[in-house]
Amino acid sequence: MYHSVTHTTDDPYRITVSPPRFERQLRWLRGHGLKGVSVAELLRARAAGTARGLVGLTFDDGYADFTAEALALLRRYDCTATVFVLPGLLGGANDWDPLGPRRPLLDERGIQRAATWGMEVASHGLRHLDLTHVDEDTLHREVRDSRQLLRDLTGHDVAGFCYPYGAVDLRAVAAVRAAGYRYACAIDPGPLTGRYALPRVHVGERDNGWRLHLKRSLHRWRREEPADLPEGS
Ligand SMILES: [Zn+2]
User: Fold this and answer.
1) Per-residue confidence at 224, pLDDT binned at 50, 70, 90?
2) What is the distance in A from the centroid of ligand 1 to the CA of 4?
3) What is the mean pLDDT of residues 210-220?
4) 48 alpha carbon to ligand 1 midpoint, in Å?
5) One GO MF term, please (predicted)?
6) CATH number of the domain at 4-212, out of 3.30.43.10, 3.20.20.370, 2.40.160.40, 3.40.630.30?
7) Cβ distance 30 to 75 under 8 Å?
8) What is the pTM assigned to this prediction?
9) What ranges do the domains of the chain cover?
């Protein structure tokens, strides 16, 4: 789970990886026989039994630096990724983070560019709201309308959703399924872990090869689905 790829020293939420560090992480992946792919591709491969060596790469919030910095590096290392964007804040900024710093978000052209270069464009809702704290109408608008807007913008079906703040409950899962998404990403594992609440591992500026090894092996048991969940949860 990445957010922003840029040079900065002002990073109170630790959501930023510098381009040289990101490149070293991609080189580490490829050097270990691994390949970064979008979540949709990872799930397709898992269903076909061909997911060995694939690692899902995600970028939350859809910062403009995704196309300015990350995209060229992903392509150089023959990787793809999923970028979770906010079609209600096109060309806006991350105003939901009270501490800042303000960072520009992708606009229409940026989102189309990401899709054109083979990245999976998926939804992070319209305006980065905590879906566990909104009324029913807002919940459905955030989930359903963002999917429609992205479909119109990219011309592609939109398979994935990512809960803002990783905040997920049964009601949010139900809304995401009803809107037609095929998977959704959360952050931490929990009772809802499964296709509609996939846990992810944060990767940051301090993650060198040794820490990536550790995170990869820990994630293997961290992502296990609880055995007593109903089908498709
Ligand atoms: Zn976010």
Assistant:
1) low
2) 11
3) 85
4) 30
5) hydrolase activity, acting on carbon-nitrogen (but not peptide) bonds
6) 3.20.20.370
7) no
8) 0.94
9) 4-212
